Amino acid sequence: MEKQTKRSPAADTRERLLDAAASLLSHGGREAVSTRAVSAGAGVQAPTIYRLFGDMNGLLDAVATHGFRTYLADKHSLGDTDDPVDDLRRGWDLHIEFGLSMPAFYALMYGEGRERASPAGREAYRMLRRQIGRVGAAGGLRMSVDRATLIMHASGVGVVLSLLATPPADRDAGISLIVREQVLRTITTGHEDESAAPTDVPSRSVALHEALRSSGTAALTPAEQGVLAEWLDRMADADSVGRSRAGGRP
Fold first, then answer.
1. Co-location of 49 and 138 in the same domain
2. What is the pTM of this model?
């Protein structure tokens, strides 16, 4: 007979507190998540929150992670295809869908700056960087992976927060698609016309950086690899900045 692992009383209490806080957040927004309301919903004394989470910020960080579990599971389930740019599209659409379907959790995570303090937020950002790194490794980026990741992340968050600030009946469903494709035109190659053909220095610089990042090389010390990576990023990003200032012309 298979032995079942029982959770400790503290783990059960912690889960009840998270469920209570998540329910309050979903139905009443951030303002509804108070020490008194959460402790009452979980059937415990208020000091228990501080014993298990340190303070209300610790509880809110845990609630944000709690709410992102489904999102991260869906993100992982997307997997990779042979088209890393299309994978970025699918990841973008999932992000937008999650934000609009769970507005209170999304606002808690991104609207209050908890993303980098939350394990779930850091994991989501790492996953986005890995996806963009695949594009870079294939020579498909016109700037460094870090800059492209920041641009795509900031744009996605901006779209969700802007749509959440708009009454549902007034939301333009096409905004997400327009911004998504504009971001892809900005960070990836393959969208040029004859009057705006860039050099291939950025894409080659990024591809080499990602190759070194994934496998390294015995010919260079770790310190030398770090310097080379910095140079490669600077070459990639300097070209993208120059093109932006020139209105897209080399």
1. no
2. 0.72
